[in-house]
Amino acid sequence: MTDSGTLATTLAPSGTPRRSHRIVDVMRAALEHVGTTGGLSWKRYLYRDNAFAFSWHFHPEVELTLITAGTGTRYAGDSIEPYDPGQLTLLGAGVPHAFVSATTGHNEAVVIHFRPEFLGPGLFDAPEFASIGALLTAAGRGLELPASEPMMRRLVELTERTGADGTLGLLGILADLADGEPGRPLASAGHHASERPANRRRMDDVFGFLHDRYGEPIALGDVAEVAHLSPAAFSRFFRRATGRTFTAYLTELRVGAACRLLAESDRAVADIAATCGFGNLSNFNRRFRELKTMTPREYRARFD
């Protein structure tokens, strides 16, 4: 996530979401220049906008994002999950990600960016900061961290702090997060951002295409064309890059979208299944239960 002053943003005005109908018209992860806040060697801000648009990107900074208003979908590596107010996400340097709001209206997030060496190399190897170093290492897969009400207030207040006071506040927050309950990894253990630019571009194109088209029928050949590979070669490539099959990933993406609709609307389950790309209700119910260990109706009941 970057603020609206940069060339490419995750949380950016989007208006009405656009759906591409051309296979070659896909999103590509951008390497973003984040910069710093005046008077600080890191960056923090409270971002408010009518909508958070899909912008699949990565950067060399660690990112700590607290959702303070609005709901939507969080993409982190090969993880696709709904987000809600109070959700705290720590993304390690280089983890591709995007936050996409479900609706227009009041959407807001605290966003913090810093490079691991922002106070000098080796700081987080020192004994008193070793727990923070371990936290940042674990964030290489992305982490969802527990956030108490006091922690959320501290993060919001941090957006107004400057100078040494602000930097000490950031270190204090990181230390408390590192010493608190462990975070939940987001991306699968088999997922890693490719070091080869050509492979990274391929995966960025594929993820963008799937995000744009998951509600429609998608053939393996269509996605293979996006990656400029044969279907058989694409299947092997995708499995090596993500640790799962293309079909499994697409199912997870569709179920994640369905979770958001189940939680935020009273639409019929069958209608949600069709909107999210499932050809029939029985298949949707089976796949949903496999991934969420409960039925769609049981999932919805948690939000009543």
Please, could you describe this protein's structure?
It is a single chain. The strands form 3 sheets. A 6-stranded antiparallel beta sheet has the order 2-9-4-7-10-11, covered by helices on one side. It has 304 residues and is an alpha+beta fold. It is globular, with a radius of gyration of 19 Å. The chain folds into 2 domains: 30-185, Jelly Rolls; 197-301, Arc Repressor Mutant, subunit A. The chain contains 10 helices and 11 strands. Helix content is 38%, strand content 17%. A hairpin with a 2-residue loop joins strand 5 and strand 6 (79-83). It has helices at residues 130-138, 149-158, 163-179, 197-213, 220-226, 231-242, 246-264, 269-275, 281-292, 296-301; strands at 30-31, 43-49, 57-58, 62-69, 72-76, 79-83, 88-91, 97-101, 107-114, 143-145, 184-185. Helix 5 packs across helix 6 (231-242).
- Per DSSP E runs of 2 or more residues, the count of β-strands stands at 11
Q: Class by helix and strand content?
A: alpha+beta
CATH architecture of the largest domain: Sandwich
Which strand order spans the largest sheet, edge to edge or round the barrel? 2-9-4-7-10-11
Distance between the termini: 31 Å
Mean pLDDT score, rounded? 84
Low-confidence stretches: 4-30
Order of helices and strands: EEEEEEEEEHEHHEHHHHHHH
Strand content: 15-25%
Characterize the main sheet.
Answer: 6 strands, antiparallel
CATH topology of the largest domain: Jelly Rolls
Shape designation = globular
